[in-house]
Amino acid sequence: LSPVCLGSLRRAAKGGELVCGSNESFKNFVEPSVVVNASAEMKAFKEEIFGPIAPIVSFSSDDEVIAMANNVPVGLASYFYSRDLSRVWRTAERLEYGMVGVNTGIISTEVAPFGGVKESGFGREGSKYGLDE
């Protein structure tokens, strides 16, 4: 399991620079990895990578980075950080994802609907809204 996961993370990060994490796997564990100098051409930007990888990309404007984030065929979850509450609302409303995490890495809870959009799923599960599906 871990060599496959590690290989998947390496392919996802190809073209960037690993600054945190390792190139090793430990039984069923792969260290979280931070990749800088990432680009929208990397697999980590085009596919859902179900692994501990955080590609860091530079951008000039909110419009640019939102367009980059939405220019993918998948849309389960997105995450971003900001101190500006008006920017939080503007950004969250424009992201084309089933779930959006703001200033947190944990967005799943039993009282909130869970589900994606695009190729990441149809409908919701959990919460009272899951019953409507």
Q: Any descriptors?
A:
3-stranded mixed beta sheet, two-stranded antiparallel sheet, 9 strands, alpha/beta, 133 residues, 5 helices
- Count of individual beta strands: 9
Q: Helices and strands, in N-to-C order?
A: HEEEEHEHEEHEEH
Strand content: 15-25%
Mean pLDDT: 85
If you compute it from the alpha carbons, what radius of gyration comes out, rounded to the nearest whole angstrom?
Answer: 16 Å
Distance between the termini: 34 Å
The helix tally amounts to 5
What characteristic shape results from the CA principal axes?
globular
Strand order of the largest sheet: 1-4-5
What is the assembly state of the chains in this entry? single chain
Range of helix content: 25-40%
Major beta sheet summary? 3 strands, mixed
Low-pLDDT parts are: none
Going by helix content, strand content and strand pairing, the class is: alpha/beta
Explain what you see.
The protein is α/β, with parallel strands linked by helices. It is built from five helices and nine strands. It has helices at residues 2-12, 43-46, 62-70, 85-94, 127-130; strands spanning 17-20, 25-26, 29-30, 33-36, 53-55, 74-75, 77-80, 99-102, 117-118. The longest helix has 11 residues, at 2-12.
Give me the secondary-structure topology:
Layout: H1 2-12, E1 17-20, E2 25-26, E3 29-30, E4 33-36, H2 43-46, E5 53-55, H3 62-70, E6 74-75, E7 77-80, H4 85-94, E8 99-102, E9 117-118, H5 127-130
Parallel strand pairs: 4-5, 7-8
Antiparallel strand pairs: 1-4, 2-3, 6-9
